């Protein structure tokens, strides 16, 4: 009798979770479909834009002549723009790829379109490192389309203050759907485990639809949960603060990680700064591997130069190592090796990479793309399961081998 009571109690829990799973899915299905679809499309936005305009990103072998110094290249860029100041230079490991020069124009903050991600960071120009020719900006072919997808994903094309909380609460529901779906997925009998791990394509379309929802949802659930839990940091400030407090990495907004680091001001008339090559020499001595280096120049007389270096390759991690330098002497003030940081700091510093899927380069982006495709299909297959249940003419118990487990 105790066993039967236990089973009866578990059945009640499963029924409650099934009901909650169903109604939460129906209530948020349309929004989640739009958010997941736009996220799927946006996954390879940078790769697609490079494919559309390859000449901006990579040079032909015959264009490779004598490399300009960074100072000469930057001077040529400013001669062509005649406005603003250079805040950063990105130097690739591949000698046939273009350099990127970020320029903050005097009118930058007022001329950028509303809703664009971080307009205060300036405009990035692609530059031929052998001629100094400006080949274009990041706002090229495909930029408008992917910005449309970005706004659709984040705000449903609504006003930010309205769309962001809507997407946020839909994401909260999505997280609950994944968790409840995983619990519902757990087979009641050991012999049913195998059934929940495969799609029976030889069955009728209703069974195939059920298995697609059930099985693919299970396989993608881990990545989907990571996406949703990290995505909420952009929807709610209270969640973002709590997320970092739990990790022990919380800092008040506006607080700088290097606020205590300052360059030593030289004596009057001796403020001759080292070359970019001198900065890189210091960095490469500390980080002796091939990679992409981004030099962020000091923004004030006592500011520091920050160089971030990233490895390249199919499995290359998104996180980079950082070296902070005195802008006048190029002396190393601080070194941050990402792999040497505590786990909580590595997670905190990888929130964006964990959300968009470039944690390990193209490899993880492909996995995220597949998981996003599955997430886009779940509201559709889940709704079809519900409709089929409404239409069925005989109880599910009469259909052998068909589990009532579902996952979203």
Automatic annotation (TrEMBL):
Q: Is Transmembrane helix set as a keyword in this record?
A: yes
A Pfam family? PepSY_TM
Highest taxon of the lineage: Bacteria
Report the transmembrane regions from the record.
20-44, 166-186, 216-236, 366-387
Occurrences of domain PepSY (ranges): 68-137
Q: Write the record's keywords in alphabetical order, separated by commas.
A: Membrane, Transmembrane, Transmembrane helix
What PANTHER family does its record include? BLL7967 PROTEIN, IRON-REGULATED INNER MEMBRANE PROTEIN-RELATED
This chain belongs to the protein called: Sulfite reductase
Q: Which organism is it from?
A: Flavihumibacter stibioxidans
């Amino acid at each position: 009798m105790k066993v039967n009571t236990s089973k009866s109690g578990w059945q009640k829990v499963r029924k409650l979770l099934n009901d909650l799973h169903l109604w939460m899915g129906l209530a948020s299905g349309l929004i989640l479909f739009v958010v997941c679809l736009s996220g799927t499309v946006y996954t390879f936005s940078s790769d697609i834009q490079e494919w559309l305009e390859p000449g901006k990103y990579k040079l032909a072998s015959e264009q490779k002549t004598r490399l300009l110094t960074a100072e000469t290249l930057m001077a040529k860029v400013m001669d062509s723009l005649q406005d603003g100041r250079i805040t950063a230079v990105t130097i690739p490991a591949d000698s046939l790829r273009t350099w990127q020069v970020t320029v903050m124009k005097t009118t930058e903050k007022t001329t950028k379109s509303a809703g664009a991600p971080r307009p205060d960071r300036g405009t990035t120009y692609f530059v031929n490192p052998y001629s100094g020719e400006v080949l274009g900006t990041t706002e090229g072919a495909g930029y408008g389309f992917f910005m449309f997808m970005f706004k659709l994903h984040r705000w449903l094309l609504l006003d930010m203050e309205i769309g962001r909380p809507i997407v946020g609460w839909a994401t909260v529901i999505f997280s609950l759907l994944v968790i409840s779906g995983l619990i519902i997925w757990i087979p009641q009998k050991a012999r049913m485990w195998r059934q929940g791990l495969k799609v029976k394509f030889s069955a009728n379309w209703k069974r195939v639809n059920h298995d697609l929802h059930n099985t693919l949802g299970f396989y993608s659930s881990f990545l989907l949960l990571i996406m949703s839990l990290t995505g909420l940091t952009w929807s709610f400030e209270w969640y973002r603060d709590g997320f970092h407090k739990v990790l022990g990495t919380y800092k008040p907004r506006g607080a700088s990680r290097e606020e205590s680091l300052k360059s030593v001001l030289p004596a009057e008339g001796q403020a001759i700064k080292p070359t970019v090559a001198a900065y890189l020499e210091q960095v490469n001595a500390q980080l002796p591997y091939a990679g992409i280096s981004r030099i962020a120049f000091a923004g004030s007389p006592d500011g520091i130069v920050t160089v971030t270096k990233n490895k390249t390759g199919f499995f290359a991690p998104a996180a980079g190592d950082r070296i902070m330098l005195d802008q006048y002497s190029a002396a190393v003030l601080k070194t941050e090796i990402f792999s040497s940081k505590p786990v909580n700091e590595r997670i905190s510093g990888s929130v964006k990479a964990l959300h968009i899927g470039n944690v390990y380069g193209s490899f993880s982006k492909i996995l995220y793309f597949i998981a996003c495709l599955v997430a886009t299909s779940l509201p559709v297959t889940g709704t079809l399961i519900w409709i089929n249940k409404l239409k069925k003419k005989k109880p599910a118990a009469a259909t052998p081998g068909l589990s009532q487990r579902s996952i979203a």
